[in-house]
Task: structure prediction
Amino acid sequence: MDPIVIAAMAKWPNVPEVFGWLSLSARGDWRLRGERIENTALKEFIRRNYQADAHGRWFFQNGPQRVFVACEQGPLIATLQAEGILLHTGVATTVSAVWLDSAGSVWFSTPHGPASLDDRELEGWQQELQCNQAPATDEQVLACLAGENHTLQWRGLQVMSLEAPALTLGFVALPTALPTADAQQK
Result:
């Protein structure tokens, strides 16, 4: 997190949270009220100050204010690299688990959080799939999509089927305010 952001948080600790303004597309584009953010400096500032809270809600810390992010797909968007993946935040990372959901989306567990593969990368990802140490056939991939346990592997990791990405991977796609202590007591 930027030092200026940390200083602002200390100076103004009780700034209201913001919901419904900032979103992340399935291809890693930031959108402000539905419009794609084009300003490079603003995109970099968001990337450097983007993280999750303890409830799985992802946000951008804008000075003292948390701006929660609605995720069209996942909270992190990945592209393929030779040794792992590159997140839309510009961070190269490793993968510890991989899933394929019923819609054909690929999901990764990374040290930085759950990531969804940019759909433009699906063909390259599928070309790397193995089944019994041979290239996976389309039928084997379709069987995995149907929830059948085939031994599909990607870069040595077993590809597992996934029913509910947000629930299983622990993120909130459309974050909202948490109930206050007063509301919980009523």
